[in-house]
Amino acid sequence: MKIKHLLLSAFVLLTSAKASFAQDGELKNFTSMQMQGIEQITVDVDLDGAVDRLSKAVQFKTISNQDREDFDTQAFDDYHAFIKESYPNVHKHLKRELLGNPRPYSLLYTWEGSDPSLEPALFYAHQDVVPVPEDSRDQWKEDPFSGAVKDGYIWGRGVLDDKNQIHAILEAAEMRLKEGWQPTRTMYFVFGQDEEVGGNEGAKHIADVLEQRGIKRFAYVMDESAPLTPGIFPGIKDNTALIGIAQKGFISLELEINGIGGHSSMPPEESNIGILATAITKLEEAQFPYKIHPAVRHQYRYMGPELDEKKQPLYAAVAFGKDGEVTPMEEEFIDEMSKNEVTRAMLHTTIATTMFNAGIKDNVLPPTATAVVNFRPMPGDTPEVIIEHIRKAIKDDRITIRDISASTPATNIADPTGKGYEALEKTIRQIWGNDLIVSPFFVVGGSDSKHFQAKDFAPDVYTITAIQLESTTEFKGFHGVNERILVDEYAKSIGFFYQIFNNLEVLENHL
Ligand SMILES: [Zn+2]
């Protein structure tokens, strides 16, 4: 404890020395990156109709259970039919395909642009929702699948994650089509079927299909992530629009010990459960080292100047820091970030032991024990690197390691200085005004667009759920109880998509 305290004092000293240095150098370049002078607009929306359609959409139980045999094809078929009858112009002018492997329940819409030489744009959202656990039902103020519209809110599973985005996109497209508007660049809408269980049937397959069809590069891809919320990022009270520019990877590994079982009256010195538990303990002690991801540097370049002035030398050091070297100030930043589990996850490949199975009877030693560990990798931590890390940590050849997931690598990083980001920020400010911080950020969770962003044809994936929440309490509706959105904010969400379709017209080709 004492040593740590001393080390910390040393950091503080070094920090203040560096701070005065930084003030002279980096700090004078550490100016606000917030877009200025954007005029707020109001988009007229048929709100009663739109709310009614979203309310009905919630009533289709398009649930993703972990057990994939539980897939309710009827619920998806009915939902598709409902979408078709609700948006006649979309279905008259856009090409609609049902894709997915092995089950074709994801929707791909193609809105042909007038100039085929332009790189296309893609809007992503998912149809599936997480289940509502029986024991949480009584905490819901409204039935989660009733789509109740009450007290100024639309209630139900999926109104925030993520049917709101599907319907806001379709409402906006319907409005544009009625006005006779046509995009110059081709636009795709992709609505996946299994985002909540990894997206291997839907998004992953469609990313492959579009790649095979010869699309060289997307100018812009957008998907869900954090909604606009005051206090959404730890330590920042202001209303903030976080734009995800990179996502971590995903891999689940099963560790297994296969040995001799036997009777509990004559146990060996080590049981299989004991051996595996020791291995897991050793693995959890061998955490991956902390490093600053380039997306985190971008994040603090944008956020930093809007935050506490006293901390700006620190943020400037992170924003302008170089990969591969860690300055004392970056060390201090890492120290601070690692105290909170949300921000700590941004610093390294995480290790989460999620399942542990062994034994069936109190007097029988189980011949096998298995554990599942879920990792969220940083760039470079491939499955091979992670497996090697485990082997070194546990030093036990009796344990076998197997990849049980369709793993995805950490993604590319979208450009926060390009026209795509600019069009997105402009649209956010047109709809929600200028009294908010807009900043890129590094997504530790990840959504279906990772299947696109992991490929080189879609580096510029921007993720944000385009709706304003009142507070972080409302955010708990994501996968929780009382998922709901404000009716008036849903109108703005539709306005957002209506506006961004047109704002994307200015994007340049990259190739
Ligand atoms: Zn979602």
UniProtKB/TrEMBL annotation:
Classification via InterPro entries: Bact_exopeptidase_dim_dom, Pept_M20A, Peptidase_M20, Peptidase_M20_dimer
Gene3D superfamilies the record matches: 1.10.150.900, 3.30.70.360, Zn peptidases
Signal peptide bounds: 1-22
Domain of life: Bacteria
Keyword RNA-binding listed: no
Pfam families xref list: M20_dimer, Peptidase_M20
Residue ranges constituting the Peptidase M20 dimerisation domain according to the UniProt record: 245-396
Keywords: Hydrolase, Metal-binding, Plasmid, Protease, Signal, Zinc
UniProt record similarity statement: Belongs to the peptidase M20A family.
UniProt name for this protein: Peptidase M20
Organism for this UniProt entry: Persicobacter psychrovividus
